[in-house]
Write a structure and sequence with these properties.
Blueprint (H helix, E strand, L loop, with lengths): L2 E4 L10 E8 L5 H7 L13 E8 L6 E7 L4 E4 L6 E6 L4 E12 L4 E9 L4 E5 L2 E5 L6
Parallel strand pairs: 1-7
Antiparallel strand pairs: 1-10, 2-3, 3-4, 4-5, 5-6, 6-7, 7-8, 8-9, 9-10
Length: about 140
């Protein structure tokens, strides 16, 4: 069982790199917006969507990938080599919550069951009882 640790990412001052600032999609800009999102997400872009796209560093590799957020639909998708992963966007927590669950252990030995999630920096972890836990081997100082 993987060991997870609670990390408070709210103190990080550096914002993720923006590929597309918050934009309301219109007939006039939809082509430009679609170019900013990963190819397998383009069919999901519609007029009146409120979208932002961030370039994030993968926690499991050194490759850049994109996190697309649809604020008006409260969904998000993160680009991976095998295709995008989709989930619910929690604006308050700045987390994309997938439909997958994972059982893990925290650093005190307690068992955790939470939703597999990605934060705004592209780091994968699990969300349990209002807290985002990151695998210990992936914790970055």
């Amino acid at each position: 069982m993987k060991e997870y640790q609670f990390i408070d990412y709210s103190c990080i001052e550096e914002e993720p790199e923006t590929c597309l600032d918050y934009t309301i999609v219109t007939f006039n800009n939809i082509a430009r917006v679609k170019k900013a999102v990963p190819p397998d997400q383009r069919d999901h872009v519609r007029e009146d969507d409120e979208i932002a796209v961030y370039s994030v560093k993968g926690s499991d590799d050194e490759n850049k990938r994109r996190l697309t957020i649809w604020f008006n639909r409260e969904i998000a998708a993160i680009e991976t080599p095998s295709g995008s992963i989709w989930g619910d966007w929690d604006e308050e927590e700045e987390l994309m919550l997938t439909e997958d669950f994972e059982t893990a252990q925290d650093s005190e030995g307690s068992t955790l069951l939470g939703r597999v999630s990605y934060n705004i920096y592209g780091i994968c972890g699990i969300y349990v009882s209002g807290r985002f836990y990151t695998p210990v081997e992936e914790v970055q100082p």
